[in-house]
Amino acid sequence: MNQKLIAELIPGDAVLSFFIVRKKELKEKKSTTETYLSFDLGDRSGRIRGSLWKDVSEANNEIQQGDVAKVKGKVITFLDQNHISIEKIREVTPDDKIDFEWFLPHTDRDIETMKTELLNLLIKLENPALKNLVNVFLNDQKFMSRFCRAPGGKLWHHAYIGGLLEHTLSVIVISQFLCQHYQNLVNTDLLLAAALLHDIGKIEEFSTQGFINYSTPGRLLGHIVLGTNMIMEKISQIPEFPSNLGEQIVHCILSHHGQKERGSPVVPMTLEALILNYADELDSSVAAFQRIMTKEKEPGKTWSNYVNLIDRFIYFGENEELAVS
Q1: What is the DSSP string of 308-323?
Q2: Considering the entire predicted model, what is its pTM?
């Protein structure tokens, strides 16, 4: 679509654009009992707040959270942030010919290339049972279509279309390297199979209708439980799958967050589960740091804003010439 992204808007810009309505709230004006509508609008580049002061009742009935809406207004500065003063807002119609996926952020990498890399890494599995289990998923076209386009998170890391595939591929590569480093200590096939499957529950955990959000199963159960259920169902369909091997791979999935306080029902109690936890944590943390640095870094700024989730600032560095090329 031919419109400015939210990240490109500056104060004074006239707006006649389409946005995802991420939130909507009816509020009272401070000085009177009159109401106005406060919106949290989004596209693939970010979010912006907006306020509608007239025809409030009609817009409140027409526009719902998750809708794509056409907005006419002007960008102003409010509380030191860009804000859209909305003149008119309406729900899209078929005549608008909207590409709904345009609003979602995408991986910078080519999805088909990543998929090929992943398949080439897993074709080397030798254990017949694990190879069968992995192939049950990889040969399922419906599953792979969802897996390759699913996000890897809502906000913190890999929060974009293709993010789950990108994250999973990275975890497999890290796991393979660690298998080579700790030769004869680690069951390589078990670890690589677990690395592939550790986050598959995210295809059910997240909804991508308009913007990335939690689905009802995602909120109620979470991706660890959802993924475990998917794996156990497939294992039950494979004749004579070794019960202890099944328990070990399920243990890897259940423990991959590392701590009970972080959502894992159990902590890692095998080398494969331990390595998977650290590979997953390393890749997700590096991706999150990179996201914050890309979003916040600007000339003369050496530190990020305070990051509540990890209880720290992130150092950007003071001399670009010292960066390693």
Answers
A1: GGGTB--B--S-GGGS
A2: 0.83
